[in-house]
Design goal:
The protein is mainly β. The chain has two domains: 185 residues, Galactose-binding domain-like (Jelly Rolls, Sandwich), CATH 2.60.120; 123 residues, Galactose-binding domain-like (Jelly Rolls, Sandwich). The strands form three sheets. It has a 15-stranded antiparallel beta sheet that branches.
């Protein structure tokens, strides 16, 4: 969901330590398969973005590493997935196509780009928010894995967006123009969508998956069965619950950590999709547990007591 000098000094120390910890290891065997560019729906309300604040207790936040396939890292332009034992999480993504980009949004103060460098890589353009783009050269004479090739330096706490773009350019010594992403490192929380089918979500009771083109990812999950619930455990600062609302939907009970439960009514006179029906607001950085339960209750106007999950937007990562 210390003083200014201490925030900057604390985050700067973390940055220095993360740079020293960047590992260089020999190349492992790789295999590649072509992956189509991922797509994102544009029907979310603008309120989905985490609110920006001027201060935060970032002095006790530590850098978090996210693999290249973490929800929230969005590829466009036909990137290729490649497995490699030396890569972060055992894989990385690369591309050498016109218009190829990777974009991600985080809440925090810092982000670094981890990549493989070698004599077959070219140059990328990287930008954060509205700042001018930097040119990043992924060429190196020898292979290096999980290399910190670019970072934002320390930013004001808040919402930030990073975009990496293939240029097709290279230095003379390079044998190719590809670029790649092995992972990112964030002081804060990466914001990503976790579909209702994500294996990290813990469902109890009886739920039914319904395929609908208006739902995020083309499907959502519903229930009106006693003792049905879904639990999300995540490390981060915020969770937003997105659902369908309509005449047949009733009330759910939501519990965050050990706080008092709240009741959320999913009824609306007309069917509306991908609605942010509830949020934790900003929480203290750490591990949090959110449980949503069917109650069997409804408003007088509702025709049934269904509840549903379309997806969760999380500033952090599910566990």
């Amino acid at each position: 969901m210390g003083t200014g000098k201490m925030v900057v000094m604390g985050a700067a120390v973390i940055l220095a330590l993360s740079l020293l910890a960047t590992a260089c290891s020999p190349a492992g065997p790789t295999t590649s398969t072509t992956k189509a560019a991922s797509t994102t729906k544009t029907t979310k309300k603008a309120a989905a973005s985490a609110s920006t604040t001027s201060t935060s207790p970032v002095d006790d936040w530590t850098a978090v590493d996210y693999d290249q396939n973490t929800p929230g890292i969005k590829y466009a332009g036909g990137w290729t997935y490649s497995s490699a034992a030396a890569a972060s999480g055992g894989a990385f993504e690369y591309v050498d196509k016109t218009g190829a980009t990777v974009t991600f949004h985080f809440v925090g103060t810092y982000c670094g780009w981890l990549a493989k460098t070698s004599d077959v890589y070219g140059k990328a353009l990287v930008s954060v928010d509205d700042a001018p783009s930097d040119t990043v050269d992924l060429y190196s004479q020898t292979v290096m894995w999980r290399h910190m090739v670019w970072d934002t330096k320390i930013l004001p706490f808040g919402d930030h967006t990073v975009k990496i773009k293939w240029t097709g350019k290279k230095r003379t010594a390079s044998k190719g123009t590809s670029i790649n992403i092995d992972g990112i490192q964030v002081i804060g929380a990466l914001v990503g969508d976790y579909q209702q089918s994500d294996s990290h979500l813990d469902y109890t009771g009886s739920w039914s998956t319904v395929k609908k083109p208006d739902a995020s990812g083309g499907s959502f999950i519903i229930t009106k069965v006693s003792k049905s619930s879904v639990t999300v455990t995540f490390k981060g600062i915020r969770l937003d619950w997105y659902a369908k609302q309509g005449p047949a939907y009733g009330k759910a009970r939501v519990i965050v950590d050990d706080k008092d439960p709240v009741t959320i009514d999913l009824y609306s006179e007309e069917e509306v999709w991908q609605q942010k029906v509830w949020t934790t607001d900003q929480l203290k950085m750490g591990t949090h547990v959110v449980t949503i339960r069917w109650t069997g209750l409804k408003s007088t106007a509702a025709t049934d007591t269904y509840i549903n999950v379309d997806f969760f937007e999380i500033a952090g990562a599910v566990q």
